[in-house]
Design brief:
The structure is a homotrimer of 432-residue chains. By secondary structure, the first copy, chain A, is α+β, with helices and mostly antiparallel strands. Chain A has 2 domains: 84 residues, Rieske [2Fe-2S] iron-sulphur domain (Rieske Iron-sulfur Protein, 3-layer Sandwich); 265 residues, Naphthalene 1,2-dioxygenase Alpha Subunit, Chain A, domain 1. Chain A contains 12 helices and 19 strands. In chain A, the strands form 4 sheets. In chain A, strands 12, 13, 14, 15, 16, 17, 18 and 19 form an 8-stranded antiparallel β-sheet that branches. A 4-stranded antiparallel β-sheet of chain A has the order 2-3-4-9, with no helix packed on it. Chain A has a 4-stranded antiparallel β-sheet with strand order 5-6-7-8. In chain A, a hairpin with a 2-residue loop joins strand 2 and strand 3. The longest helix of chain A has 20 residues. The radius of gyration of chain A is 23 Å and the shape is globular. Chains A and B meet through helix 5 and helix 10 of A and loops of B. Chains A, B, C: Pfam families: LigXa_C, Rieske. Chains A, B, C: This is Phenylpropionate dioxygenase-like ring-hydroxylating dioxygenase large terminal subunit. Chains A, B, C: InterPro entries: ARHD_Rieske_2Fe_2S, Cholesterol_7-desaturase, LigXa_C, Rieske_2Fe-2S, Rieske_2Fe-2S_sf.
Amino acid sequence: MLTHEKNALLTQCGPGTPMGQLMRSFWIPAMTAAEVPPADEPPVRLTLLGERLVVFRDSEGRVGVLEENCPHRGASLFFGRNEEGGIRCVYHGWKFDVDGHCLHMPTEPATSRMCQNVKARAYPARLAGAVLWVYMGDAKPVPELPAFGFMDQPDAHLYASRWHQECNYAQAMEGELDSAHVGFLHQMVNQTDPDHQALTGKYFQEDTAPEWKILPGMAGFMACNGRRVDGDKRYWRLNQFLLPFFTMIPPRPGDAQLVRMWVPMTDERCWVICVSWRPDAPLNEAELAAWRNGENSHRKVIPGTTTPVERLDNDYLIDRQEQKTISFTGIKGIRAQDAMVTETAGPIADRTREHLGTSDMAVVAMRRTLMEGASQCAATGQPHPAAANPWLYAVRAVQTVLPQEQDVATADDFLAPARGTPPAAPRATETA
Amino acid sequence: MLTHEKNALLTQCGPGTPMGQLMRSFWIPAMTAAEVPPADEPPVRLTLLGERLVVFRDSEGRVGVLEENCPHRGASLFFGRNEEGGIRCVYHGWKFDVDGHCLHMPTEPATSRMCQNVKARAYPARLAGAVLWVYMGDAKPVPELPAFGFMDQPDAHLYASRWHQECNYAQAMEGELDSAHVGFLHQMVNQTDPDHQALTGKYFQEDTAPEWKILPGMAGFMACNGRRVDGDKRYWRLNQFLLPFFTMIPPRPGDAQLVRMWVPMTDERCWVICVSWRPDAPLNEAELAAWRNGENSHRKVIPGTTTPVERLDNDYLIDRQEQKTISFTGIKGIRAQDAMVTETAGPIADRTREHLGTSDMAVVAMRRTLMEGASQCAATGQPHPAAANPWLYAVRAVQTVLPQEQDVATADDFLAPARGTPPAAPRATETA
Amino acid sequence: MLTHEKNALLTQCGPGTPMGQLMRSFWIPAMTAAEVPPADEPPVRLTLLGERLVVFRDSEGRVGVLEENCPHRGASLFFGRNEEGGIRCVYHGWKFDVDGHCLHMPTEPATSRMCQNVKARAYPARLAGAVLWVYMGDAKPVPELPAFGFMDQPDAHLYASRWHQECNYAQAMEGELDSAHVGFLHQMVNQTDPDHQALTGKYFQEDTAPEWKILPGMAGFMACNGRRVDGDKRYWRLNQFLLPFFTMIPPRPGDAQLVRMWVPMTDERCWVICVSWRPDAPLNEAELAAWRNGENSHRKVIPGTTTPVERLDNDYLIDRQEQKTISFTGIKGIRAQDAMVTETAGPIADRTREHLGTSDMAVVAMRRTLMEGASQCAATGQPHPAAANPWLYAVRAVQTVLPQEQDVATADDFLAPARGTPPAAPRATETA
């Protein structure tokens, strides 16, 4: 349960808010690389952390992310002309490059210095790991990109998709960190059917009340949840939470790795970007086809949009007959099921009325990590230190089976890939 | 005319408002019995007095009315599974019975006491008189149901329907108590046509400015309106207003009785539930067919919904040619005509700018009765005394013709069925 | 750049605001004469300066403009019956004439004086120059209509159309006074094509940074903008701004004159009324056909509505391929292009973040003239003096070519038709 004030602290990410400041410490994933238009093609719109932007690629292929409204009198640059090194507002022909510099201001006299003095708000952008990253903070120089395992993989090893959800980012993300729900929300009605067992795993049925162990780190925490299985053993899953909104859950053996990103669009809507990847091999055609069709780790969207097919305003196309006999929800798609339980709590869940149990330990840890980070940034006026340590993101979500009495915190072999490796020489942080 | 403050007092019914507290003294009609889903079938949504609820029937046929959001983390119970004695949230499998008790909390360890301590907000519900009644107040024990004449009639004597209107309940109800409008709004253009006379009655044309006499009672008042007719006589109609939002108007001779209920959904929308009934005989096929088609006392809706066919956002399908030559409004349906004049005053009418005349005496009495009741409940913190006296609702709306000079308040034979009969032994009120 | 306070002063026009008071000094153009319904036909709705009204024509052909809501209990007079000298509310049969007097109040007793005491809010209305004018101010007697050149022209010399834009009036009007944009927004991509040159004029390409000279007058100002052309000459265009929202731009040689009117509907939406006219000849079929089709000075709307075909919520049907090879915007219609650049700045542009250049001198002058007028009206409680001097509106927008060194303010022959002629005898102003 949170007070109204803490709920606001957690959920509000616009310019000038403490959580907005924390978020702006980090590179923000904005869209998939495939959604970025080609060089000299028309810009696309993007709303991020409450700010309306346009994204384009200039003649040299550099990506520009500018405030949507022209700094002159506010006309939308979405309707601008992307040509010869920049985007030109069609109202008066003012032209801006990817850095926001004004290249041409033809309505001013030749003697005017105004062109040098007016700048469009521009954010640095990078393409890496099939994702477009945007830096909306103040640090100079800008930090390095986070060193997620997928960031330097070849294209064939990567698949990224994006959709939007009709609720605050924190609420959407809570559904991801909350391992206890897996055994319910996503289960099949007839659990003895081996196909259905395959989907959610029989371990989830053996113990519905996992034990939690939160192992904090510099950029977030590892949320270990252990279920008693096979008599005297415990099945441990280790989920990752990484500031400000990254999550990883362990894949089934043989499946691809994944990272999900829960990015505030506005305070009442968020983007979800999911990257599936294999560190050692190209993705295979079967999994690619399933993801493109919105199965498993990805969500089914109306082609050419980020709008899910099963969504809040159509009751997720629930099939009540199917709910009785086939799946627990009657809703198609693991991701749509997740969206249903988080979106129906309202655009911003009223956390003053919730009742948290032991199953919500990772949710509590996530909120605390975010709120403490936001308060720290607000107090110091500095970016969060994790932003200056990209290696903190070179970690994995993993799973294993241990003897029941073993403390997971001591299982070093298991934890090693989840902990990552600091660089050989100590790094100075950005704020030092 | 009301001040802004009094208009707010009259119209705001959410939790914590004085009018909301008054309303919560009483059993609230929520939907028709036919709209309540069968046992173990999926729940339906319902918004009442600003609260979002779900309605379902458990395996034993008991009706449950729960807050829509799960007390855990707020997922909607509309998407829940209604099975074996309760509704189960699909997020984590928490299960609640019709009283809001948690029956199962599988994500908590076996040793946890949390299941006993968490309760879903649940409201007592009863089916009676073809209507589902919900009690949203605090009184213990809950009061008896109001003893409307139709409450214990056999099914064949009853017909109930429900629709919604796009304005505050008080405004919608004002149109019902306002007898003077009948001779205008619902009239035909050619009043000499005997068919048209039959519809609204020639008495309404003989005297367009009825005299009013308000006779107050413990649960509301009788609004008598008398028109000079046939030379030296007066045609008296006696409408009933019963707290907090029940009205009765006298049927034409031979027609069925009716009760209308103007129930706040939100402050800017209301439900209308209408029960037509015959105390002594089954309803006949002709009147049932007409009502199902949205004629006379009921409203035409899009099948399977509570959305009227003729409504605000389509200008009530007004036919301007028909308005010139056939009906006064050019709008089909008595109820649609009523909705038009009340809804077009805005979601909440600005009563600071109105000009009330002698024709508005019942409207004024209704507002005063409600506002005094609300103030009294707010001052005492107690339910309204009428809620503890169900017999006050066992009354009728009646009509007669009296000599013009006779005081209607002295016409005891006429008034007897409108006054009801107190129980033999005096009852203690809930607040005593 | 304006402060938030000044932006509010400029843009808010509802009852009781300073700018609203300034506007109510003047006759407000409300719709085209062709849109006013015939005598005894149903009324139409109109929102003006934030007030919801109905417009009708009584049996004698007089135009009535009344508040939409009946003064009794607020039912909409839009659904009223327009018959025999007035409009009758269908709720209780109250009937009002074009002056708002109550002609009949049949629900009150014969002895009641209420009919004489209740008045519907009514605004004087006049038809002139193919436009319906409404006076919403307090001055008694009402001022004369502004003496625009087109006001007493025969019908065949006049064409008027109306559409709405999704932004504040001031923002929409800024696009009109802003001559510098013409050479960009409306240009063709291939400027050497003689057809394209014909459209926007080669002079606009020769000098993209016109020099400005603002010549203030009693009712507004002349905004002269001069472009260096043909070596040693200057091409001068003289646009007119006349309080509170009238603009004129000079037509191409041989083309019809025009006046545009940027009338607040609400603070976030405006009407645009455009009158094209010829002082000395009937309009020709070719230009009429083009205007009816939404070309040149007028806008293409969905027939029977004021809703543009190319509009904000459909991205103005931009054709990105056409934007590359044919027109600068890829948007069809000069007026749609203007709407795009003004509407996309938001319903009310945030003028605290703009960057004005020398090209914006007329925009600055217009804002200052309006804000000074509003402040003056608020301080004195009097109408603006220009409202009492109709001759101030008998002016033209003109253009010429002068030697480059000549001061346009000294070009008396050029300025004469733009200055207008005061009446022979001095007039007392309304406020004297």
